[in-house]
């Protein structure tokens, strides 16, 4: 090892020690070479139509750190562990059914927490090396967080497409820094899924096409975030999920017994993580912001969560929701909400629901909503003949 190499190793160890000091659970270092193998996978992913549409559209930016930082030499990946269990969780019961947010949306929006940690880390690096270029990325950056974390030795990308760490399982948030400092890289962790296929078999919609490949268009986590109508074939699979889906992580043997409360910011409020469904239907924008504004689930706004709450009430066949659903069908200005309410009324059934659908059929002008009313009436008719 040359004197220069030793200097950069000391810099790396100083960064690692500071990261531990400020509460970063894992940190790893990697080269900023282009991700050639990832590009091949991303091209195939796009050609198959598996993208969600939330990704950076420029594939080159997703695989080449130098397009984000011109003289990029190193990547620094970090992970923060988050809780997997909800203490004192309220239970759903007739008349008080509840939805659920995925664990990644519990507590404070992780983007803010990660950015703060990365900002602290960036400032420390610039104190060590004032001329250093350092750029922070969290979730919305161009690079693949998982690919960076895997190369930096934090864990491996499992068959459920999550980054799995030996210590914390996949219950981790990821972020990274790109820098022009030539920091010595860490060694990647060997893939640890082996022959296990539990997550692929457990996926409710078959979105995990094969180990490590996800069809986002079928993934419940993605579907709960779109603002349009959810395709018919997936509505019954949503269950009471309001945002995200944890199934492929819950069943993972590497996550068994893993629960961490290292960061108070991520401690969930049970009434936010598992809220009552009916109040969500009439919630104002201000009420939504007050309740969910600090959660990462708020980024798509109120409409997707309200639509998912309607589907959840249909899932529970909650008769007490019928009057509120009828109000939405009559008065809500958003076609997706009116149409989903119509579908839910057909699913829940009953004379009151049927009467409301018949009336709406004559007054509704939006073609998409009329189609949902027709589906609702068809469900009612089928129920009467069985």
Defining key terms:
17 helices, 386 residues, two-stranded parallel sheet, four-stranded antiparallel sheet, elongated, alpha+beta
SS content category: alpha+beta
What general outline do the C-alpha atoms trace? elongated
Number of helices: 17
Query: Residue share in helices?
Result: 40-55%
Our estimate of the beta-strand percent is 5-15%
Structure description:
The chain is an alpha+beta fold and 386 residues long. The protein has one domain. 43% of the residues lie in helices and 10% in strands. The chain contains 17 helices and ten strands. The chain has helices at 3-21, 36-47, 59-63, 110-128, 145-151, 198-202, 220-223, 232-235, 247-250, 270-273, 278-281, 285-292, 302-316, 322-331, 335-348, 351-363, 367-385, and strands spanning 26-31, 74-81, 100-101, 134-137, 156-157, 163-164, 172-179, 208-210, 213-214, 241-243. The strands form four sheets. Strands 1-2-7-4 form a four-stranded antiparallel sheet, sandwiched between helices. Helix 1 runs antiparallel to helix 4.
Topology:
Blueprint: H1 3-21, E1 26-31, H2 36-47, H3 59-63, E2 74-81, E3 100-101, H4 110-128, E4 134-137, H5 145-151, E5 156-157, E6 163-164, E7 172-179, H6 198-202, E8 208-210, E9 213-214, H7 220-223, H8 232-235, E10 241-243, H9 247-250, H10 270-273, H11 278-281, H12 285-292, H13 302-316, H14 322-331, H15 335-348, H16 351-363, H17 367-385
Parallel strand pairs: 3-10
Antiparallel strand pairs: 1-2, 2-7, 4-7, 5-6, 8-9
């Amino acid at each position: 090892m040359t004197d220069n190499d030793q200097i950069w190793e000391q810099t790396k160890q100083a960064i690692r020690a500071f990261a531990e000091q400020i509460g970063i659970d894992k940190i790893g270092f990697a080269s900023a070479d282009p991700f050639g193998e990832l590009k091949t996978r991303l091209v195939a992913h796009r050609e198959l139509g598996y993208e969600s549409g939330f990704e950076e559209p420029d594939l080159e930016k997703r695989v080449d750190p130098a397009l984000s930082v011109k003289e990029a030499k190193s990547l620094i990946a970090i992970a923060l562990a988050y809780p997997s269990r909800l203490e004192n969780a309220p239970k759903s019961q007739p008349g008080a059914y509840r939805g659920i947010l995925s664990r990644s949306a519990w507590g404070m929006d992780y983007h803010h927490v990660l950015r703060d940690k990365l900002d602290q880390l960036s400032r420390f690096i610039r104190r060590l090396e004032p001329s250093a270029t350092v750029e922070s990325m969290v979730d919305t950056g161009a690079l693949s967080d998982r690919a960076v974390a895997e190369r930096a030795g934090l864990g491996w990308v499992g068959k459920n497409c999550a980054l799995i760490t030996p210590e914390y399982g996949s219950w981790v948030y990821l972020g990274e820094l790109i820098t022009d400092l030539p920091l010595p890289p860490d060694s990647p962790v060997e893939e640890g899924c082996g022959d296990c296929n539990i997550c692929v078999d457990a996926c409710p919609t078959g979105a995990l096409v094969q180990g490590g490949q996800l069809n986002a268009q079928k993934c419940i986590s993605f579907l709960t975030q779109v603002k349009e109508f959810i395709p018919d074939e997936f509505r019954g699979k949503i269950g009471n999920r309001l945002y995200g889906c944890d199934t492929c992580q819950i069943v993972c043997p590497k996550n068994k017994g893993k629960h961490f409360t290292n960061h108070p910011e991520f401690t969930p409020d049970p009434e936010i993580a598992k809220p009552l469904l009916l109040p969500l239907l009439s919630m104002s924008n201000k009420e939504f912001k007050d309740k969910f504004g600090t959660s990462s689930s708020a980024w798509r706004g109120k409409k997707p969560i309200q639509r998912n709450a309607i589907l959840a009430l249909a899932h529970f066949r909650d008769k007490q929701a019928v009057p509120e659903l009828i109000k939405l069908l009559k008065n809500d200005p958003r076609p997706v909400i009116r149409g989903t309410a119509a579908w839910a009324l057909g699913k829940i059934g009953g004379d009151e629901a049927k009467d409301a659908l018949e009336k709406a059929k004559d007054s509704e002008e939006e073609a998409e909503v009329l189609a949902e009313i027709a589906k609702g009436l068809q469900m009612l008719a089928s129920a009467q003949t069985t």
